[in-house]
Each structure stands twice: as structure tokens, then as C-alpha cells.
Amino acid sequence: MNNYFSRRSFVKSGLAVGAAASVAAVASTSKNAANDPLGLRLPIHLALFDTRFPAAHAFARALAIRGVTLAPYDGDVTPVWFNQLDPVWRQYPLAVAGLTTEGALFCLEQLAWDNRMRVVYRGLHESSAQGGTRHVLQSSARRPQDVHGRLSGVQPWPAQIAELIAGIDEPVAAFPSDAAQRSQAEYRTRSRMTGQRLVSWLIAPKDWRAPAAVSAATSAAAAS
Fold first, then answer.
1. Burial bucket for residue 36 (CB in 10 Å: 0-12, 13-18, 19+)
2. Global pTM?
């Protein structure tokens, strides 16, 4: 199956349920399933990336290897918003990741909020005055493991960010509006990023819990 969404075929079908089903089908056969047989990790169903930036391409390739469906766009995220995300999110709370501009994330975050979805991780990536690329990664203070000790010089940073996002598991805590309630880690990598600064992010269903964890909690409550 082609990992790229066809905007034309999506609009032609006019079926939000069909689009969601196709995304779910890709996710169910992804390589993530083999690496996570108990379903403890949050399944990522779609990855948005701005095709103007090489780093975004590298990020997308790393997630495509994991079986995540890609949604490329060229500067204007509006078509993805209206034709791919909004119809699906109205029916299904599917998790979405991305490496985009801050403006694109701002728009998507508003749409997510209306559909009971929340940003649970955010990273800022920009050229550093000291050379290389500066990264500021943030998550909820309840999830410091998602951002601390995560970047190194071993492989390109976009691939490491993709791995970080793909590894986020339950419980997923919404990104706090209060900076004092966030975990933050700062890194610098050697390769210098070209162009404007970018943000990596993960949007997930509010209060998501892995099915196995939910079952365990239910069983424990019943036993008590």
C-alpha cells in the first residue's frame, strides 16, 4: 500500500469513515504491531511533514519504516486539516505526529482540542548560534522519560525524534499550558539545520490508556 495519502481520491470518496478505516488498516499491519504485541504503545496513525524541509523528509522516512502513513504538504497545511484530519477526528480519535512549522501546529492544535485530542509532546528545532542545531524537547512533568536522555550524535536527529515519538507509551499526559508543569530537556546536535525553525509534536486522544493497561486496572479493581 502506498504510504502517501491521495488528496484527490480522499475528496472524491467523500467518506470519512472509509478514510479512517484505511488509516486503521495501515496501522494494524504496521511494523509497530510486531514490536509491540501487547499494544502498550500509543499507535501513531498519521505523520504530517512539510516537504519544503530536508529534516521533515528524514523524519517522515523514519516513521514510514515503522509503517506509519504519511501526509505530506507543501507549506499550506489547510488541505490536510480539512480533507484528512477533521473528517476522521470527528469519528475516530487517531493519534497524529508531525515535523512542521509552528504555525501549522497552532492550527492543528485548535482542531485537536475541539475533537478531544491534546498535544502530549512538543520539540523545538532551530539553528544554534554556537553551531549545529538546538533542540528543546518538552512533555508533561508526569512523563520526563519522554524527553530526557533522548538525543545523541549517533544518528541524524530527525530519525531520533521519530523514534522518541514512536516510543511514547501509556499513560499519555496532555501537554500542560503551565510551563512549571512541563519536563524540558535541551540538546545540540552537530548538523546545522537550514531554513526556519521547526517543531516536532504528537497529538493523542485525551486521557488515552493502552488496552492492556486498562484491562489490568479493571481486573485489579474487581479483585479488590
1. middle
2. 0.77
